[in-house]
From TrEMBL:
It comes from Bradyrhizobium icense. Residues 3-54 form the DUF1858 domain. InterPro entries: CHP03980_redox-disulphide (IPR023883), DUF1858 (IPR015077), ScdA-like_N_sf (IPR038062). Signal peptide: none annotated. Pfam families: DUF1858. This is Hydrid cluster protein-associated redox disulfide domain protein.
Length: 66
């Protein structure tokens, strides 16, 4: 299950289709060394992104790819 407490790097590795979502939200987490330490929630805070909207889009993307 994809939740806001998961590490960004783990999310992108487990569900590669989510990479597009990060890019669409202008979050340059792909390849960032901090991605292994930041949760989705922390990354959203760092990038001033609405965490609920971002998480919802990630979850929709994962469902669509399944």
């Amino acid at each position: 299950m994809l939740t806001a407490d998961l590490m960004v790097d783990d999310v992108m590795r487990r569900w590669p289709s989510t990479i597009r979502v990060f890019l669409d939200f202008r979050m340059r987490c792909v390849g960032c060394p901090i991605a292994t330490f930041h949760s989705i929630d922390e990354a959203c805070d760092e990038h001033s992104v609405d965490a609920a909207a971002f998480l919802s889009k990630l979850q929709d993307t994962v469902k669509a790819a399944a």
